[in-house]
């Protein structure tokens, strides 16, 4: 908690305490019907009141606040807290009683120790109660400040953990994709060097995307779609039948922002486990965009013996965790596996709250 906030909290407490004393004095003034002169207009009474009600309050509050909280309460040593709290109240009452007596020596206010024993004990008990009540408020104030500081610290820790977890997920996704695409180009080099050069440029664009744009929290959706198209082109070079993939985008992606590398793991998984690429429409990818949401669907036929791992070896839980981090309560993920069809439907809300 910032220092100025702590100071303001203390000033607010003592302002309220003085206001409470004022209300009590005003009630006493009205009750005694001595309206010719107010009590607090007499400096001698104000000095006596400060020694009687304000001094023990300050002593009790800051002893509990500065010493007893750290030494006993934070360590949950309640017995010693109680003992030293009582001692603090007694010492505070003796100090205040001595100040009141000194003021009386100079003709300000009534004395304490020159009265009978019953009066002395009564006054000292009242002063001790004032000290211990304010001491309790000191504990509450210090506890609140510490609780707030720990809350902010935990929020900062969670934020750092969040950033580290996202960075870890990206490093796990990127190498796997790069290995796949490099293998594809390596196969093409021996067959058609000119095409290999063309696809190498596509890979260069993808690597540039991964190095620079994936560092951002959000990127334009059109960039993500261009990245996916290049990825699909690179996958097509492994088969003589380019129609085994059906990829369609509906809607306007110009003004839409999305977290990078959200859709690719599903597409990568579809290519990895797609069965019999000689047939048409083995993989179907649909992306629908409107002002409120993005709907992504990826369906592929697979061989049961092929599907040993999901999401490119990353696992369902890792992908789900990333979505929970990036789009908490703003996404829906449905995964279905039938006899030979694997389907994913991901809906992401993109409208501003």
From TrEMBL:
Domain Signal transduction histidine kinase internal region, first and last residues per copy: 164-240
UniProt keyword annotation of Secreted present: no
Entry keyword Cell membrane: no
A single MF term (Gene Ontology): protein histidine kinase activity
EC number: 2.7.13.3
Keyword field: Kinase, Membrane, Transferase, Transmembrane, Transmembrane helix
Enzyme class at the top of the EC tree: transferase
Transmembrane segments: 12-31, 43-65, 77-105, 117-140
Name used for this protein in its record: Sensor histidine kinase
Taxonomic source organism: Emticicia soli
